[in-house]
Amino acid sequence: MSLKNLSSLSVLVLHGPNLNLLGLREPQVYGNLTLDDINRLLEAEAKALEVKVSCFQSNHEGVLVDAIQAALGQHDGILINAGAYTHTSVAIRDALSGVKIPTVEVHLSNIYQREVFRHHSYIAPIAIGQISGFGPDSYRLGLQALVSQVKNKEIIKP
Ligand code: DQA
User: Fold this and answer.
1) Atom nearest to 132 CA in ligand 1
2) Architecture in CATH for domain 6-151
3) What pLDDT does residue 153 have?
4) Average pLDDT rounded to a whole number, residues 22-27
5) 107, 109, 122, 137: least CB-packed within 10 angstroms?
């Protein structure tokens, strides 16, 4: 494991449906920051962690599946807020487990304090872990956790 590999770690950040409406959408649940604000926050955190982030949002399940497949060989980790697809999408879960890229799931709101249909995540069982309920900090903490996990794995790799 060379130092070059550690410093060039690349994380794909995926935002699912309706997250493009942040700032406007149910601010009492999701806060006032826009998606651009969250992406800027992630870029600042990535700089501090000395990794690269690429942020992408789509309202379409198949487009998110394509983005996950295209991440193979390009990114070392995936940070995902799949929005409502968290609770419905076997396709996104299968894509993530198919590419085997270490994944951390994040949510702005605490999905366990909300409607029962939000309590189940198809992604959680195949993710390293899930961070839910810290607003924009969920993304920042998720990125820290993902990078720490990927770096540790790289270090112990023979
Ligand atoms: C969300 C929670 C989901 O239940 C919801 O459908 C979203 C946003 C969150 O970040 O809190 O779109 O993923």
Assistant:
1) 11
2) 3-Layer(aba) Sandwich (3.40)
3) 83
4) 95
5) 137
What Rg, from alpha-carbon coordinates, does the chain have?
A: 15
Average pLDDT over residues 75-96: 98
Give the DSSP per-residue string, 134-145: STHHHHHHHHHH
How many Cα atoms sit within 13 Å of 102 on the Cβ side? Answer: 19
Mean pLDDT of the chain: 94
pLDDT band for 6, please (50, 70, 90 cuts).
low
Pairwise CA distance, residues 75 & 68, whole Å: 10
Residue whose CA is at the smallest distance from ligand 1 atom 12? 83
83 C-alpha to center of ligand 1: Å?
A: 4
Average pLDDT over every residue of 52-73: 98
User: CA 6, CA 35: separation in Å to the nearest integer?
Assistant: 28
Ligand 1 mutation target, pool 38, 80, 85, 111, most atoms within 8 A of CB: 111
